[in-house]
Structures are given as structure tokens and as C-alpha cells.
Specification:
This protein is mostly beta strands. It is about 15% helix and about 40% strand. The longest helix is centred in the first third of the chain and has 13 residues. The protein is globular and about 45 Å long.
Length: about 300
């Protein structure tokens, strides 16, 4: 049996019984009202079971966050890009452009024709594995993230324009959040055959779930297979991420996208991040990316 290492620094004090009930509901594709509105609630014990699509988004966010920073010393600001193709027919679905420097990280998601439709901002600050996050998608009006509020840190999500915002307070110790997966993985960096586990929060969901990463090596590539670390893990889609072993930089992702399509579903994609699309940038490039207008629809 492969060794399993649990990284407890970021684990939420969730209750096993509550998670089991939630995932049994997932197995039968049942839903209940979730989170809280203006009234309040906790991110520890959510009221809604995760749907299959939500689990897919969480797995994708968990995996794709790995591209959010190189291990080695880098220029003050770096730029890297990836192209997401449909896993079935190879169609180009969207592009990702990442700009990271200091305590700022901006991601622009672009349609196949180059127009930006979504943007993510991250602030790692003093907690690299648990950053503040803001994601906005102009196609649906979706807005979600993690922010500091009086008394602590809050997770929030608005699923579409005009919908009510749902929020939940994030309990300490904070879990791994969104792109914080990269900092967590670089610190743990499992050897081939080893499995590591942690609690992970994707802001689109108001609670954390247990995740597992298992490593294998193929030539110069270290491949991680990601799954939910529980009996219900077989219900989630399969995800693989490939790293360059020497630089520990993501080169390939295969699994559900962390960006929902126009119908609100997580399409199965393959995203490649070529070395040729990586290079230096400037703080002005980050400022410019924050001003790029977002379009409400991608032209096919």
C-alpha cells in the first residue's frame, strides 16, 4: 500500500459525520439550500451537499492552482500562459494569461478570439497557502472569493448576476485556498508512490473538502493524480497534472475546467503551459491586466 502523509497544518476541524452525509447526498445527486445569506453561517459544516459539477470545479481549482508560481528565484514579475482545449475534439476553448509579482497575482481568461471574459486576483501576503481571492466572470455575472472582514475571513459566492450573495466565515486553522495549493504542494512535494492529503477550499463552495495527491515519475515529469480523500472519491472525475521535475513548474493539466462554460458546467479540458509562453513582465503589465474590459459572451 502506498504511504499516505497528511499535512495537518491546513486541515479544517470538520466533522466526519457531516461530510459523510453530504457525500451520500452527492451520490444520489440531491441538493439542499446552502450556506447563508446576510444572516451568517460557518464554513466548517455546510448545509448543502456538493453536486457532481461542484466537486469537479473544486478538483479543477485544486489542480490548476499548481501553476500559480515557480519554485526557483524568478524575475520581479513573471508572465505565463496556457491554452485550454476540449478533451474530446481538441477545440480551443479559452486561454489563460497569468501575471505574478510580489503580493499580486492576476489571471485573465480569454475567449478563443482573444477577448477577456473573466479575471482572478489573488493576494498571498503572509499566508501563501491561504490567499485572499476574487474571481469575476462577465458571461454569467459570477463573483466569488475569500476576503478579510471584521472578526476573521469570509468566503463568498454570487452564482450569477442578480443572485443573492452567499457567505460563510472561515474557521481557523485556514485550509489550503485556491492557488494556495501551489505553496502547499511545493512544501510537501511527495515522492513517487507517496500520497499526501489536506483540506482544500475552492471559493465557489462555502466549505472545504479533503483532497489527496499521489505522485509518480515518468522520465523528467512528475505526475500527480488528484482525488477526494474519502470513500466517495470515485464519484469525482479523474485529474492528472504534470510537472517538470527540475523546475517544479506545471506543464500539462487534464480534467474538468475550473471555469464553468455558458451552461454552468465544467468542461473536460487539456491545458498545456509551454515554456515558450513564459517570461518576464512588469508591474505595469499587472496594472494593465486589471483594466482590461471583460466581455459578456465569447464569439464562437
Amino acid at each position: 500500500m502506498s504511504p499516505t502523509r497528511t499535512t495537518t497544518d491546513h486541515r479544517l476541524p470538520w466533522q466526519v459525520d457531516a461530510i459523510s452525509k453530504r457525500m451520500r447526498a452527492l451520490a444520489t445527486s440531491m441538493r439542499r439550500p446552502c450556506g447563508r445569506g446576510a444572516g451568517g453561517g460557518s464554513a466548517e459544516t455546510p448545509a448543502r451537499p456538493a453536486s457532481a459539477t461542484t466537486v469537479a470545479w473544486m478538483l479543477a481549482a485544486f489542480a490548476l492552482s499548481a501553476l500559480h508560481g515557480p519554485v526557483e528565484a524568478a524575475p520581479a514579475v513573471v508572465r505565463f500562459e496556457g491554452e485550454a482545449h476540449a478533451a474530446g475534439d481538441g477545440r480551443l476553448l479559452y486561454r489563460e494569461m497569468h501575471l505574478r509579482g510580489g503580493e499580486r497575482h492576476v489571471v485573465l481568461y480569454r475567449c478563443a478570439d482573444g477577448q477577456a471574459f473573466a479575471r482572478k486576483q489573488l493576494w498571498p501576503e503572509a499566508a501563501p497557502s491561504s490567499p485572499r481571492v476574487l474571481f469575476e466572470d462577465a458571461r454569467s455575472g459570477r463573483r466569488q472569493g475569500v476576503r478579510d472582514v471584521a472578526g476573521g475571513r469570509e468566503v463568498f459566492v454570487r452564482e450569477r448576476a442578480g443572485a443573492a450573495e452567499r457567505t460563510a466565515m472561515l474557521a481557523r486553522p485556514w485550509p489550503v485556498i485556491d492557488a494556495g495549493f501551489d505553496a502547499w504542494l511545493r512544501e510537501a512535494w511527495p515522492e513517487p508512490g507517496e500520497r499526501i492529503e489536506t483540506a482544500f477550499l475552492a471559493p465557489g463552495r462555502l466549505s472545504a473538502l479533503p483532497f489527496r495527491a499521489q505522485a509518480t515519475d515518468t522520465g523528467d515529469i512528475r505526475r500527480f493524480r488528484l482525488s477526494l480523500a474519502a470513500w466517495y472519491g470515485g464519484l469525482a472525475p479523474r485529474i492528472e497534472v504534470d510537472y517538470d521535475r527540475a523546475g517544479r513548474q506545471l506543464s500539462r493539466y487534464r480534467g474538468p475546467s475550473d471555469v464553468p462554460d455558458a451552461r454552468g458546467r465544467a468542461p473536460d479540458v487539456e491545458i498545456r503551459f509551454p515554456v515558450s509562453a513564459r517570461g518576464p513582465a512588469t508591474a505595469a503589465d499587472i496594472d494593465a491586466a486589471l483594466q482590461v474590459p471583460l466581455v459578456a459572451q465569447c464569439v464562437e
